[in-house]
Design a protein that fits this description.
It is built from six helices and no strands. The chain is an all-alpha fold. It has two domains: 67 residues, no CATH class; 57 residues. The longest helix is centred in the last third of the chain and has 21 residues. The protein is globular, with a radius of gyration of 17 Å. The N and C termini lie far apart (43 Å). 5% of the residues are buried.
Length: 125
């Protein structure tokens, strides 16, 4: 096992422990994900810290909104409309130089993009 792999796995564990309390269902999911990732070639496992931190923030926002449902049933037009609306909100935050709001909106954009990616895994017909 190479050093980069070990360092990356350790950093992912630290980030996950910071984001989710002990006993969180997400923590159990992380254990399962780690097991699945070990089947991938070790050279491909290491994910940039920036990507992990961004994904963790996406997940935090998703968990805050778990009481809402239906994103998995949105059609492509509705998803593009939501992405456009979130982009508009991000642009307002950018124009007003409100970095905190801008960061929130880019996470919302990313989650809407993830919904689109998830709902349409194959070529859109």
């Amino acid at each position: 096992m190479n050093r980069n792999y070990i360092d990356c796995e350790r950093r992912l564990d630290e980030l996950f422990a910071e984001a989710f309390p002990l006993g969180s269902p997400a923590l159990d999911d992380w254990v399962n994900i780690k097991f699945e990732l070990r089947t991938i070639r070790k050279e491909e496992l290491c994910v940039r810290n920036e990507v992990v931190e961004f994904a963790m923030e996406m997940e935090r926002v998703l968990q805050e909104n778990d009481h809402k449902s239906g994103w998995d049933r949105l059609d492509i037009d509705e998803l593009f409309l939501r992405i456009t609306m979130e982009y508009d909100e991000a642009f307002v935050a950018y124009s007003e130089k409100c970095i905190q709001d801008l960061r929130k909106e880019v996470i919302d954009i990313a989650n809407c993009c993830m919904f689109l990616f998830h709902n349409y895994p194959d070529e859109v017909k």
